[in-house]
Design a protein that fits this description.
This protein is α+β, with helices and mostly antiparallel strands. It is built from five helices and ten strands; from the N terminus they run E-H-H-H-E-E-E-E-H-E-E-E-E-E-H. A hairpin with a 5-residue loop joins strand 3 and strand 4. The radius of gyration is 17 Å and the shape is globular. The two termini are 30 Å apart.
Length: 220
């Protein structure tokens, strides 16, 4: 990352009012923010819904969330441009060491939002999350080819950024895989890697099989 204030921008094939609701209604936020976790509800409340720490304008379709990051929606006539501008560096000393990690997290979530609205509007998802440190500094999870994955994956590339790549996955009920690399830094001398698997409509056996296969592969 540079010292410039990062900006993440996507165009979503959905009306601006639908994108706005996805940013403001807790049940919809669950469909794209983060992944399944016991603390997810509390995190959504803290970031998006605490009236003392956010600024929301439905008329302008702008939302400044807890921490100072700013969402701006622009109506493109049936589609919507979403722009997320990070708060300036140094504006929150408590989280300054994690500034780049938070930017990467927003990159993941914004693309998961676009996917949820374009592929599964209103649908609940089940997710798996993996994070770790590569044993080999040269290992890059974003270079993973579908044929090398622990389970069958057919689909297409959904997005690519400096440190992340997303793939649609037909076998997961038209799901989404996001892979990310954390560059070597003072905070992460060996770098890092993460994967978010978003699935739709899998029965319990299929979901648990997916969990087991990816858990074993990730550990190896």
């Amino acid at each position: 990352m540079t010292d410039e204030t990062p900006r993440i921008e996507v165009t979503i094939a959905a009306p601006v009012d639908a994108v706005w609701r996805a940013l403001r209604e807790p049940q919809q936020i669950r469909h794209w923010h983060g992944w399944d976790d016991p603390g997810l509800e509390a995190e959504i409340q803290l970031i998006y819904l605490d009236e003392d720490k956010i600024q929301a304008s439905e008329a302008d379709h702008t939302l400044e969330v807890q921490g100072g990051d700013l969402f701006e929606l622009t109506d493109l006539g049936g589609s919507t441009r979403l722009r997320l501008t990070r708060a300036p560096r140094g504006s929150n000393p408590e989280w300054e060491a994690y500034y780049d990690d938070i930017t990467e997290g927003w990159t993941t979530f914004v693309h998961q939002l676009r996917f949820a609205l374009e592929h599964h509007p209103g649908d609940a998802r089940r997710t798996l999350f993996f994070m770790g440190t590569p044993r080999d500094r040269g290992t890059q999870i974003t270079s993973l080819e579908p044929a090398e994955a622990p389970t069958s994956m057919t689909g297409s590339e959904w997005f690519r950024s400096q440190n992340q790549v997303g793939h649609t996955v037909k076998e997961w009920g038209d799901g989404l895989l996001v892979l990310g690399d954390a560059p070597v830094s003072a905070m992460k001398p060996n770098g890092g890697a993460m994967a978010v698997l978003s699935t739709y409509g899998l029965d319990e056996n299929a979901f648990e099989d997916l969990r087991a296969r990816w858990t074993d592969w990730w550990a190896a």
